[in-house]
Amino acid sequence: MNKIDITTLKPDTDLSCPATAILKKGEGRSLKAGGLWIYDNEIAEIKGGFEDGDILSVEDFDGYFMGYGFINSASKIRIRMLSRRKENRITPAFLEKRVRDCWEYRKRVIDTSSCRLIFGEADFLPGLVVDKFSNVLVVESLALGIDRLKPLLLTNLKKVLAEDGIHIRGIYERSDAKVRLKEGMERCKGFIGEAFDTKVEIVENGVRYQVDVQDGQKTGFFLDQKNNRAAIQKLCPGKRVLDCFTHTGSFALNAGIAGAESVLGVDASELGIAQARENAKLNGLENRVTFECADVFELLPELENKGEQYDVVILDPPAFTKSRQATNNAVKGYREINLRGMKLVKEGGFLVTCSCSHFMEQELFAKTIREAARGAHKRLRQVEFHTQAPDHPILWAAEESYYLKFYIFQVCSES
User: Fold this and answer.
1) Quick one: which of 30, 157, 289, 298 has the fewest CB in 10 Å?
2) 411 and 384 in contact (C-beta within 8 Å)?
3) Using an 8 Å Cβ cutoff, are 186 and 180 in contact?
4) Are strands 199-204 and 207-212 parallel, antiparallel or unpaired?
5) What domains can you pick out in the chain, each with its CATH number?
6) Exposure string over 61-96, b if 16+ CB within 10 A, otherwise e
């Protein structure tokens, strides 16, 4: 399959090899619960020849058919499943339907001018992420098997979008995450097809942004907070707002566009702050929305010592942990910024706080915020709780798809 142009195959061509993976007795618990991963230590044997990246069938120890998935002997996640039904063999027609289902779902749940079109396991296309910024696609491929299917999937995606009058002017690949190394793959980025201007203007919640799909973080812009950014707008008219870990200014600009009296956005990235300032100018907000390059952990105590107070404080940090082993240190970081942030909120004002780490589970995050409130001698009234936007769906059988926790609290003094 990897030696031919997969996009030219007939729709009913079977893309799988004749090999079959046999699970050990008692293994495959996650798979049987609806998950998509099979780990290396769950496999008893593989019957038949295969190459890494091939699609094969999976059977339980007793011969019961479990589905089709692609294999990679270089990865601890040995097989990632694509289909669970024996009659749903992996063909170009099957993969087109998968892509079409992704698009039809997005049209029903979110503004599609810019959105995540494919979200890996949650869309039953494990290892693949595709974001749409206006008429540009950004793709991230994190598994060998999906990498081999990528040309066909992207061809299908362009076809499906064109049917709705959306013509993609270019595709950029951002497969430069370190996790590719665990798959035995090299990190890569660059154009898929012809080169194009990688600065893309989008509009979200009435705010204009210049998205840098080539050099911005991840795929260029964090689409997962779209609805959460909209949720803060009602808190901000006429108010003084502090936006910490502002990145390219998205929460700050939502506060500004909603009519905040003044907004200060803070981030340690000089590149991010430069982009945030450009975005403020793009929206005519540069006089009310300003940005400072600083370490948030150092700045918050300084603002407290100066006696600064804000009507709304927003905390949207990067993931403090990317492994379960580092969770304890992450808890300390979240507790610290939330404690400091609460102290900067005026009586009756609002704290907006987030965690984008999958390993910082909701219960643990809530416990950490509760401890911070106790340390700050504040009482919290929960206003709202959200997860990631629905174009980043949470597949309950794939817990890794649930990562973003977003709270709005009113902050009151103890009395």
Assistant:
1) 298
2) no
3) yes
4) antiparallel
5) 8-83 (2.30.130.10), 92-199 (3.30.750.80), 201-413 (3.40.50.150)
6) eeeeebbbbbbbeebebbbbbbbbeeeebbbbebbb
Lookup: tokens for 28: 């495959």
* β partners of residue 263: 241, 289
Token pair for 158: 């362009």
> Using CA atoms, how far apart are residues 246 and 257, in angstroms rounded to an integer?
15
Pairing of strands 289-293, 262-267: parallel
* Token pair in block for residue 144: 């060998």
Selected catalytic residue, list 17, 102, 236, 356: 356
Q: Are 131 and 137 in contact (CB under 8 A)?
A: yes
Which of 323, 414, 337, 322 has the alpha carbon at shortest distance from 369?
337
d(CA 269, CA 255) in angstroms, rounded, equals 21
Q: Across-strand partners of 79?
A: 38, 71
Question: What is the rounded distance in angstroms from the CA atom of residue 378 to the CA atom of residue 80?
Answer: 46
CB-based contacts of 415, cutoff 8 Å, min separation 6: none
- 310-369: per-residue pLDDT in tens? 999 999 998 887 667 778 888 999 999 999 999 999 999 999 999 999 889 999 999 999
Q: What is the pTM of this model?
A: 0.94
Residue 367 tokens, joined = 């416990």
- Alpha-carbon distance 207 to 95, whole Å? 35
356 is catalytic: yes
Side chain identity, residue 23:
L
